[in-house]
């Protein structure tokens, strides 16, 4: 095999190895990015649930105050 053919083969092998490594690196990075998205979604969902719970507690507190200060007639008693 000539020197030129050996150099071409070595260059082809090196480029192939680099491309394969690059694709694997990109897949790992994409997988990690997707997982981080799942973690962000979970945190966002927990925060939303916490806010809803706070709103519910505030609504409950207001209702108790209104019921103490006002007479409430249910629709069944009419």
* Alpha plus pi helix count: 1
Q: Mean of residue pLDDT?
A: 93
Percentage of β-strand residues: under 5%
> Residue share in helices?
over 70%
User: What would you report as the Rg, rounded to the nearest angstrom?
Assistant: 33 Å
**Main structural class:** mainly alpha
Question: What is the rounded distance between the termini?
Answer: 103 Å
Which residues sit in consecutive blocks of at least 5 with pLDDT less than 50? none
DSSP, total strands: 0
Order of helices and strands: H
Largest sheet: none
Please explain how this structure is put together.
- The chain has 78 residues and is mainly alpha-helical.
- It has 1 helix and no strands.
- The relative contact order is 0.05.
- The mean pLDDT is 93.
In short:
With 78 residues, the chain is mostly helical. It is 86% helix and 0% strand.
Keywords:
78 residues, mainly alpha, rod-shaped, 1 helix
Topology:
Blueprint: H1 3-69
């Amino acid at each position: 095999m000539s020197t030129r053919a050996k150099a071409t083969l070595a260059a082809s092998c090196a480029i192939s190895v680099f491309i394969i490594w690059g694709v694997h690196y990109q897949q790992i990075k994409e997988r990690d990015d997707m997982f981080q998205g799942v973690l962000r979604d979970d945190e966002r969902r927990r925060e939303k649930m916490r806010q809803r719970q706070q709103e519910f507690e505030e609504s409950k507190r207001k209702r108790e105050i209104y019921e103490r200060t006002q007479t409430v007639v249910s629709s069944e008693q009419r």
